[in-house]
Every structure is written in C-alpha cells, then in structure tokens.
Hints:
37% of the residues lie in helices and 21% in strands. By secondary structure, the chain is α/β, with parallel strands linked by helices. The strands form three sheets. It has a five-stranded parallel β-sheet with strand order 2-1-3-4-5, sandwiched between helices. A four-stranded antiparallel β-sheet has the order 6-7-8-9, covered by helices on one side. A three-stranded antiparallel β-sheet has the order 10-12-11. Helix 3 links the parallel strand 3 (54-58) and strand 4. Helix 1 crosses helix 5 (111-122), helix 6 crosses helix 7 (180-188) and helix 6 packs across helix 8 (198-210). The termini are far apart.
Amino acid sequence: MNQATGRRRVLGVDDERSLAKLVASYLERDGYAVECAFDGAAALAAVRRAEPDVVVLDLMLPEVDGVEVCWRLRTFSNCYVVMLTARAEEVDKLIGLGVGADDYVTKPFSARELVARVRAMLRRPRTEPAEEEPARRFGLLEIDVTAREVRVDGQPVDLTRTEFDVLAALSARPKVAFSRGQLIAAVWGDTWVGDEHLVDVHVGHLRRKLGDDPAAPRFVRTVRGVGYRMGEGS
Length: 234
C-alpha cells in the first residue's frame, strides 16, 4: 500500500505500451496507485523499489520473460501476481501458475474484467484468525495459521499466499469435503469469476511442496465427485 496516499499499489508489466497504459488508466480510475514497466528487468527493479500489492504480469516479455520474472520476484516478494498470456493453451497457464502466480487472464480481455479481478483479489477474505490459535497438526504436517508458517517433519515449507490460504481453509474444517466452488468462495471470495479448476492447479503445487504423492496423498486428499479435504497425515 502507498503509505502517503493510503492507496493499494499495482504494477502493470507488458511490452505492449498502449495496452499497459490503458489498463493503468482503468486501475487508476478505480483508486489504485499504478506504475508500468515494459520489460522483465524493469519489472523486477520496480517490485523491489515500489513493493506493489499486485503485479499484473505479461507472460511474453523482452529481456526477462514473465515466467522468469515470477520465479525471481517470489524470492523476495509476497505480492499477488496475475499472469497475462496471449495463448490459450492450458500449458501456458499452468507454467505461469507453477512459478507462483495467483491467477491468470487470457488475452484478449477487457480492461474492466482485469480491474474486477484485481479488486476481488485485494478483497479476498483472509484465513488467519483474529486471535492466536495453536498450530494445526496432521501427522508430520504442522500449520501455524497465526504466523502463516508451514512445516513438514520440522522443515519449513515456502508457500505462496494463495497456496497457504487453500491449505488454511482445508485445515480449518478437516472433516469437511470442500467442492471447488466452496474453496473458491473461501479463498478467492464470492465475487471471483473464472475457471474453478484453478483450485486443482494450486492443490497440485501444494502437494508437490508438501512432498505429497498425488497417487496416495497424506495431507490433501481428493474426494471423487466432490473436491478436496485434509488427510490425517499418515
């Protein structure tokens, strides 16, 4: 957040300058403090300097592409990332999300749609409790919701905001089988519009980071025909 104005910061990264400026104008009208970058190197410098709340990041960039930018910024920033791709193939979306993006939008898109996505993301309900609570334990998995820390067998696991929020939502009601729609509502909020299979992508990343075998998961289990629930950890 911009401390001087109290406005949330958004960094738009796209080598199509006219598109970047159009999106910036819509975001500014919605009350955000917006900065633009037109290549990957400039984007990384801007993230370090401006500490944005959200980065709207094009996949195809000169110098350093969007995938590499996302990889690098995840080493020093926990901002939300919306990945833009001009290609509709699922593999491009998965590549973007696999490096820590929270959402994706496929070109062409309306500027109003993108602004709505950013607005919904920044209004996402947070899963941390108002007061400190004991860590949640599922076998070797320990989830400290108050500190937003996760450990497996005592070793810390580095999760993105979204990955942590999915795990926190599941672990808050460990006996409940959540549908994708219920997880979307719990993590992304009721106003989010998009493909509910986004949940599957983040669950896949969670399992990989937790060392969970997708064929026999201990921590995040699939409930066929429904969605997901927590496992016992053994």
